[in-house]
Every structure is written in C-alpha cells, then in structure tokens.
Amino acid sequence: MNNENNPFGGFGGQYATSVQYGDTSAERPAAALQLDTAPPADVIKDTTTQAFAVDVIRESRKQPVLVDFWAPWCGPCKQLTPIIEKAVRAKGGRVKLVKMNIDEHPAIAGQLGIQSIPAVIAFKNGQPVDGFMGAQPESQVNAFLDKLAGKGGGAQPQIDEALAAAAEARAAGDLQTAADIYQAIIEQLPETVAAIAAFADLLADAGDLEAAKEVLATAPETAANDAALNAVRTKIKLAEEASALGDGAEFERRLAEDPTDHQARFDLAMIQNAAGKRDEAANSLLAIVKADRTWNEDGARAQLLKFFEAWGAMDPATLAARRKLSSLLFS
Asked: Which SUPFAM superfamilies does the annotation name (predicted)?
C-alpha cells in the first residue's frame, strides 16, 4: 500500500523514536541464555469456583495467569491442552496456567459470559486483560504468551512499546500517528502479526475496507488462524453485509409497525454494528433470541457470536452481551 490509496497517508512522516527496528544485532548485547528451564511445581494446576480468587485473582498480582475453561467432552480442548501446557512450561514460571472444568464449575465461566470452549482468559493484577477462543496452533499460543509475559531479548520489547504507543494514539483520536507507527513496524519487520492486525483494524474502522484487505493479505501464512486477523476479517465481512442493507430507518419503520418482524430487527442490528453502536446491535439480536430462539435456525445467536469475534473477547460490549445471552439461555 502506498500513500495514494492509504487514507492515513500523505504526511510522509515516520514514527519518531530512539528505537530502531532494523538489524542492530551488532550493537545490541545478546540476551542471557536461561539454562534452568524447570518451572515451579505449581505452574499448572486445576482450580475450583471456591479457589478461583486465590489461584487466579491473587496469583495474577505476581505474574500473568491464564485460565483455560474446558470440559472432558470437548475435542478442541484436548487439542489445545498439550500445546498450552508446553508453552506455559517453556516460560519458566513467568506465566501460570489454571484449568477450570466448566462441567464441574460453571459459575465463573457464566460470569465471564463464556459460551464456547476452549476459552482462555489472561489475568493480570486481578483483572482479565486478554484472551482467545478455540484451539490455536502452537505458533499462535506462543505468540500470545510472548505478548502477555514478554519474549525477552531482541526487538520484542521495542515492538511492544511501539504497539502500545500506537494503541494510545488511536484511543486519543490521533489516527494518523497510530497509522504511521503500524506502518513503520510493518516496513521493518513485515511479519509482525500484531501490527498487521491492528493497522488493518484501524483502516476497517475508517471505512477503507479494500485497504484493510490489502494489509491483511501481507500476513504470513503461518498466522492464517490468528485470532486478531480473523477478527478483522469478520469485521470487514460484517461491514460489507451492512453496507448492502442501506438505511436503517426503513427497518425502524417496519419494527414500529410490527415488533415481531425479526428480519427487520436482525438487519437493523447489522446496521447498528456497522455504525459502532455495539450495545444496541447486541440488544437487537438478544431481543430476537428472547422472543424466538428458533428463528432462522438460531440465526440471531449465531450472528451475535460473529459480533463477539469482530469486537474481541474482552471488549466491554462482548462481555455485557455474553452475560445477557447466558442469562437467556440458561435461566
């Protein structure tokens, strides 16, 4: 992508920083080799609803804690378990894994609005900070732990710092600075999946879906199943579907005439989501689930799950809607 077709291009500026992402290995001291790879004995453990506060909340104030929500009947859970245990052990105690069987202990999963397993939620300082759903390949699990607990050595700390700066700029509304940072990282380290996903997401939110697709196309093949990349792909698909629906006023009129017009409410939810009205979009679909779970072969719930993927597992709208959905399904 060049500055002509980049909505944030044209300024020609580079991310001004003392950090250089090029090959500076000659100037950078080699990372110390850690030969003692044996982790503490309690780096992986099972927990219960009663022990959750100690095993996860309190323990996460010392180092990050992953909570793996699973069940004995879950095939993908069995695929993920050896991968995530191996990755956690390789961290030598810098991150811990706590496993919770939701069949025996469903309360915590319900409070977090988890409806699909395996689900892995990362806690830091007593709070959930990140997570992913579904079985992931070993490379993606390792990348997730590197982001969470640090990779150590090389350029990763500087990359993390730059990504954080870009996220801060974006949150403050300075989209140009955020775009410049993401581009600088990608130019010098083209396979930085986190930067690719974040830049594509920024472009998608800006309405340039084609540019977002171009950025996604640069992702390495090894990251084909990356959760962040898939979330942007889903966001783009939802935006394209909403664009084809036109103005939401027509669907609001239909609902005023007939509140049981589930198709109108469904289409309105798509438009609300495209407009960034996530809570309203979720509530529209939840209203359909409440009124008629069987409508369109449970289509409202299925669409809500697509919203969750596009929004992210820890987005406030996702968490709130998951709790409401759980209440509807299991009350």
From this structure: Thioredoxin-like (SSF52833), TPR-like (SSF48452)
Q: Is the Cα dihedral 147, 149, 150, 151 positive or negative?
A: negative
Catalytic residue among 74, 102, 163, 223: 74
CB 82 within 8 A of CB 289: no
From 43, 44, 65, 77, active-site residue: 77
End-to-end CA, the chain? 50
pTM, to two decimals: 0.48
For residue range 36-48, what is the model confidence (pLDDT) as tens digits?
Answer: 334 445 789 999 9
pLDDT tens readout for residues 178-235: 999 999 989 888 888 899 999 999 999 888 999 999 999 999 887 888 888 988 998 8
Give the pairing type, strands 65-70 and 119-124.
antiparallel
Return the sign of the alpha-carbon dihedral for residues 251, 254, 259, 260.
negative
pLDDT band at 105 (very low <50, low <70, confident <90, very high): very high
Number of residues in the chain: 331
**Is 30 among the catalytic positions?**
no
**Catalytic status, residue 74:** yes
Burial 74-96 (b: 16+ CB within 10 A, else e): beebeebbebbbebbbebebbbb
- Segment (H or E) for 68: strand 65-70
Q: CA 322 from chain center: how many Å?
A: 15
